[in-house]
Amino acid sequence: MATKSTQNKIQSWTRMMARWRRSGQTVAVFCQANQISNPSFYQWRKRLAEAKASRPKTGTPSFVPVTVVSTAPSGPAAEFVFGSGRVLRLFGEVSADRLAALAKALEAAGC
Fold first, then answer.
1. 34 DSSP assignment
2. CB of 38 within 8 A of CB of 31?
3. Which one-letter DSSP state was computed for residue 57?
4. Strand partners, 87
């Protein structure tokens, strides 16, 4: 567990980082205006980011409900066969507009 002094520093630097983000200033300008050394700023920014990344995310479910559809599609909705022999199969509903846009993009890419 962090000491009270360390907790105070973490809170202080967290507020400092928020002020910097809101300021729109570069790190160098912000540090100069607030009499902070650039290395200290970068060290604390990294430290706070690592601490945030290591905290468990709350409210994020481990499992997401899934609805199982009883009927599987019988085959692809569209299929493109390229000169190289590669095949692109699209399953599910594909609108005519999307299909036309995909065909145009593939043609432009030289597929």
1. T
2. yes
3. P
4. 81
CA angle, corner 76, sides to 75 and 81, nearest 5?
125
Residue range 35-69, pLDDT digits in tens: 999 999 999 999 999 888 877 766 665 666 777 77
For the four alpha carbons of 12, 5, 51 and 38, in that order, the dihedral sign comes to positive
User: How much is the pTM?
Assistant: 0.48
Decide: 94 and 77 in contact? Cβ < 8 Å. Answer: yes
Domain locations along the chain: 4-54, 78-108
Output the average pLDDT for the chain.
81
Signed CA dihedral, 74, 80, 86, 88: sign only: negative
The confidence band for 34, taking pLDDT boundaries of 50, 70 and 90, is very high
Average pLDDT (80-98) is 77
Per the CB < 8 A criterion, the answer to whether 75 and 90 are in contact is: no
Tell me which H or E stretch contains 90: strand 87-90
Rg (CA), the chain: 27
